[in-house]
Amino acid sequence: MSEITPDLVRHLGVLARIQLSEEEVERLTGQLDAIVDNIAKVSEVATPDIVATSHPIPLQNVFRADEVGDMLTLEQALQNAPDAADGRFRVTAILGEEQ
User: Fold this and answer.
1) What would you measure as the largest C-alpha separation in the chain, in angstroms?
2) What is the distance between the alpha carbons of residues 9 and 20, in angstroms, rounded to a whole number?
3) pLDDT in tens, 78-98
């Protein structure tokens, strides 16, 4: 059993600037006690010969392979543009200065 007490929970509430009712202090005491106990159990199991993992199962890339396909022509890409110049989209300056 951990050393989480109602006084410690009240102190943590003061440090976090959270006003806790007595019901909340009782509930949080039990919850924090369970959390600390579970962390202690995990710490007992963790040994230097066990490699740390970020995921319990190996991950695989789910993306499809890149394949060359039909591409838009320059005219098709620019046909619905509100303004185009020299084969490019023309937009207004967003920083208030021309570049």
Assistant:
1) 74
2) 9
3) 999 999 999 999 988 777 665
